[in-house]
Amino acid sequence: MVPVDYYIILSAILFTIGAMGVLIRRNPLIIFMSIELMLNAGNLAFVAFSNMHKSFSGQIFVFFVIAVAAAEVAVGLALIVEIFKTKKNINIDEMNSLKG
Asked: Which residue, among 13, 2, 6, has the nearest Cα to 37 in the 3D structure?
């Protein structure tokens, strides 16, 4: 049996990697992947604490977080595709407004 502390440490490491990806990288696809990594790190912590307390409430919450993350990815990728079609560039530094 793996202690809960190991899961929490892994979750913190994954969240830190995701946060650094959001802050350092300028590619929107990498930023979306980093946000997904941060959400999955939070999900790992929820499941670990849920297992520790022998309840399913954390796992149910993780189900809803995954559903919201899937919707976020669909909308985000649609925005990236539309911005690329209009501006022919998806550099984050050059996108300071959503005007066409």
From this structure: 13
